[in-house]
Amino acid sequence: MQNTSTETKIEFAMIESRIVLPGAQALLGFQLAIVAPRASPTC
User: What is the mean pLDDT of residues 5-22?
Assistant: First the structure.
């Protein structure tokens, strides 16, 4: 098992979050774009 420093682990987690968060935001945005028109009352 490798001995990695806490600083290296934090840096790796930050890099991973930079990759994952935009994808999650895109998925939630598309879901909201589908649900929002259905929820709004029609005029």
Answer: 94
